[in-house]
Amino acid sequence: MRIPVFGGLWPIRPRDALRDAFAGVTLASMNIPQVLGYTRIAGTPVVTGLYTVLLPLVAFAVFGSSRHLVVAADSATAAIFASSLSPMAEPASAHYMALVGMVALLTAGLLVLARIFKLGFLADFLSRTALTGFLTGVGVQVGTAMLGDMLGVSVASRRTLVQLWQVMQGLPSLDLRLPGVSLFVVACILLGRRFVRNFPVPLVVVVGAIAASAWLHLSDRGFSVIGPVQGGLPSLGLPQVTWSETLAVLPVALSCFVMIIAQSAATSRIYAIRHQERVDENADILGLAAANAAAALSGAFVVNGSPTQTAMADRAGARSQAAQLAFAAIVIVVLLFLTGQLQFLPRCVLASIVFTIAVGMVDVNGLRGILEESRGEFMLAILTAAAVVAVGVEQGILFAIGFSLVRHVRHSYEAHSMVLVPDASGRWQPRPAAPGLQTAPGLIVYRYGADLFYANADRFADQVRELVEKAPAPAQWLLVDAEAIGDLDLSAAQTVRTLLEDLSHRGVQVVFGRVNAYLLSDMQRHRLAADLGEGRIFPTLHEAVEVARAGGMPIDPPEKVLGLR
């Protein structure tokens, strides 16, 4: 397996490198407050947010291929592992951080396996609709979890609905200064996001809050602050956990793996298309594996290809991973010289920054668009969001995958089927299959819109029988347009064989047209081709119609009723 390096960096000219370096500085100014906020979601020390945009950024720049994808802390994956690990260990404790590191290391291992065995297709089982619902649910959950710190209310539970109830119980005893500051911070960030998108409003808010806290001694006036923050570069080492704990966190890593594959692949594709570039998805998977391994070894937590941070980098003018390397260089400066000031940051300000991140995850426009196009898809998104809020993040992603699969199976089970009927000019046009439709006296041309498998084969057979039984004129020929049927399993083959026997007893001859090589192979393997007989399976519908004409059907030549071949 060839491992290319710096695919997201080369080729680059000095002029482009300078542009990307400035973009990286801009990206750092906007994202450093955000990654500090992610630690509140993850339940880890504040400094670990900075660690996620140091070695992981460099690792992806070396091994990834996308020139635009920003791999860093992400609210969705942070919520996944935090909700699962917090019952196992006290958040921010040494034991908790060891478990967090093992989740990142296992996620890296799963990504390596995905690269070797090309398992990236697993993320396709998480539909865009389910992903929208999942992220919306995570946004609601994270936003609710921040209300306690924003309002100065004690919240002990980790369950979203219980947290909301505890916040409501604490409302009568509010110190209005804290919610006032929180509301001001949220308003500033959301208005800045709306009107000055390229201005680092969160950074200005954080710097201003730190300065005000240090000058006015807010920690002595009822404002809780984050306290001392470890400075310096991260130390390297493997997470120290037991074998049983490793097995216990493996499902958590699997959930993070699915989310990373789904989000990162979608994000890198979007920006590759936008900039007319090619992206090597296998190299990106390897880059994501390297980034998560770097996170595990450097005391950080799971990192992901972030859609929001990638969008920020693109708006800042970044056109290669040189911008992310510049971002990492800024983080080194912060770790070496500026962590001492972070201790004065009020918790309500940090929680308010996280709350704005959560608001951004609730994709109202996306949900509205889904509702306009499909009520069923909208219900899928809402059910997924509700599962995340009511049950939990890790369970929510399983619900999302399950709902997506059920909806897919339902589409295949209730496949669209048509009967070709003549229009005013005599040309055959498809109409939804219904009893009483007939292509011509004695002839039914039936089109089925999905693969035939154990679940839908009986529906296929029952509909054919109904069409034959209720045809206006006694059916003599049934032509199956099999263009959409690419697969036929054993159970479906047995059902079709029984159908052929029934139709033979009724005197109906059956012909299959537009049979592709894969379906033909299945029909031969299951001996359906032999049951049909020679000259009853054709690669085109024209040939099938010609056989019916030769058998006595009073129809025009296929070129006239079907058009040119």
Describe this structure in words.
The protein has 565 residues and is mainly alpha-helical. It has 2 domains: 14-407, no CATH class; 416-562, STAS domain (Transcription Regulator spoIIAA, 2-Layer Sandwich), CATH 3.30.750. The chain has helices at 14-42, 47-51, 55-63, 75-85, 94-117, 128-151, 160-170, 177-195, 201-216, 243-274, 281-297, 307-315, 322-337, 339-342, 347-361, 364-373, 375-390, 393-413, 457-469, 490-505, 517-525, 528-532, 541-550, 558-562, and strands at residues 71-72, 304-305, 417-422, 428-432, 443-448, 477-481, 509-513. The chain has a 5-stranded mixed sheet with strand order 4-3-5-6-7, sandwiched between helices. Strands 1-2 form a two-stranded antiparallel ribbon. α6 (128-151) packs antiparallel against α16, α8 (177-195) packs across α15 (347-361) and α17 packs antiparallel against α18. It is elongated and about 100 Å long. The two termini are 45 Å apart.
What is this structure's SSE topology?
Blueprint: H1 14-42, H2 47-51, H3 55-63, E1 71-72, H4 75-85, H5 94-117, H6 128-151, H7 160-170, H8 177-195, H9 201-216, H10 243-274, H11 281-297, E2 304-305, H12 307-315, H13 322-337, H14 339-342, H15 347-361, H16 364-373, H17 375-390, H18 393-413, E3 417-422, E4 428-432, E5 443-448, H19 457-469, E6 477-481, H20 490-505, E7 509-513, H21 517-525, H22 528-532, H23 541-550, H24 558-562
Parallel strand pairs: 5-6, 6-7
Antiparallel strand pairs: 1-2, 3-4, 3-5
Helix pairs in contact: 1-4, 1-9, 1-13, 1-15, 3-11, 3-13, 4-10, 5-10, 5-11, 6-7, 6-15, 6-16, 6-17, 6-18, 8-15, 10-11, 16-17, 17-18, 19-20
